[in-house]
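HUMAN:
Just now I want nothing more than another pair of eyes on a protein record. I would be glad if you read both lines and explained how they fit together. I have put the entry right below:
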Amino acid sequence: MSKQQSDIIGSMTKRKTKQSQYPKTTITLDGISLYTLCRWASLKDAVDIVAEKCEEKKIDFNDFDLKPLDLLKYVDCMTDQLYNKVTEQESNA
C-alpha cells in the first residue's frame, strides 16, 4: 500500500473527538491489503458513530444495545465505498 493510499484513508476517516491526541508513532502496514485497511477504517468509523450516539443520549457505551448485524452491514457497505474512493483518487493522481 502506498503512502498516498494511507493518507487518503486517514483523512477520510478522521472525526472530531473530545479525546486527547494519541501519541504519534510510526506504524508499518506491510502485508495488509488496501481492502483490509479500508475494512478496519470502516469498523472504527462504526464504533465512533455508536460512541457519539451514546454521548448524545447520555448512555454508557457498555449499556448500549449493539446490533451486530447492523454494524456488519454498515462495515460491509462503507468498506466498499471507501475502497472505491481510495482507488479512484489514486488513479486520478
